[in-house]
Amino acid sequence: MDDQAALAEVFDSSRGQLRGMAFRMLGSADEADDAVQEAWLRASRAGSGEVANVAAWLTTIVGRVCLDMLRSRRRRGEHLVDTAGFEALLAADGAAGPEDEAVLADSVGLALLVVLDALGPAERVAYVLHDLFAVPFEEIARIVERSPAAAKKLASRARRRVRGRPDVPAADLARQRRVVDAFLAASRAGDLDALLAVLAREAVRRSDPAAAAEAGVRGARRIAEDTARNAARARFARPALVDGRVGLVVAPRGRLRLVLRLTIDGDRVAVIDVFGDPDRLRATRIALLGAPPPVRAA
């Protein structure tokens, strides 16, 4: 078997792993496919005759391609935050096949993709490769063109941002999580009675213009009825740490559209602040709830 055929065989067997890495680094299934294809073109041009570990070499190439794409995205000022196509996404998502980006995003964790999107390109690459795929820092250093020690610092800084830091004691955080989970379950089900049970009687919902046409809604029944009518939106919502407290992020296909910052009074939701303005979304501290995701295969 010649070198090119051997390379093609290793590449085909590694394709799923490489695509999984690329998806987590880029947050887009289409871009992940582009990155894997570009990696194949680079690898086939270079040849693998002198390469001792072809699978690790391919990981390095994919990492470099993804880093270039993330840097290019940042230079162009692209932010994967846009509320304009939200309704179209709601309508189209139901017809998705098993390889659709929405399915991929949900398997990775929509909240994780939202948090990763706030990281710098090198931080994101270092965190994904090391914490999610156990790639050694010596290999990551070659991708990000830093020393192994510097690559380790990139991953450590990213890890702190991904985990976040709650502003309340653990017991309060657990109580908030129970209330938010109950609110989310009732919202997804469109269950009016369950919503009324978790909303304070004089609850208030405040929204910015990018999130809703109506700036303010007062009273548990009005909020519950409105929430029940829009149950389809709730399937894209996931609990997250929002400015140090338990809240919700609405992220179709891993793209942050809305943030719900919830004020909990006892075992009821008292205030819901909903915002979708891109500048405000970028300024919000969003982190994962609970333990960080384990190292996993694609």
Describe it for me?
The longest helix has 24 residues, at 3-26. The two termini are 28 Å apart. The protein has a seven-stranded mixed beta sheet with strand order 2-1-6-5-4-3-7, with helices on both faces. It is of the alpha+beta class and 298 residues long. It has helices at residues 3-26, 29-46, 54-75, 86-93, 101-108, 110-116, 121-132, 137-144, 148-163, 170-189, 192-198, 220-229, 231-234, 278-283; strands spanning 199-207, 216-218, 237-242, 245-250, 258-265, 268-275, 286-287. It folds into two domains: 3-78 and 118-163, Butyryl-CoA Dehydrogenase, subunit A, domain 3; 170-287, Nuclear Transport Factor 2, Chain: A (Roll), CATH 3.10.450.
Give the key terms.
298 residues, alpha+beta, Butyryl-CoA Dehydrogenase, subunit A, domain 3, Nuclear Transport Factor 2, Chain: A, 7-stranded mixed sheet, Sigma-70 family RNA polymerase sigma factor, transcription, RNA_pol_sigma70_r2
Percent range for helical residues? 55-70%
Shape category: elongated
- End-to-end C-alpha gap: 28 Å
**Total domain count:** 2
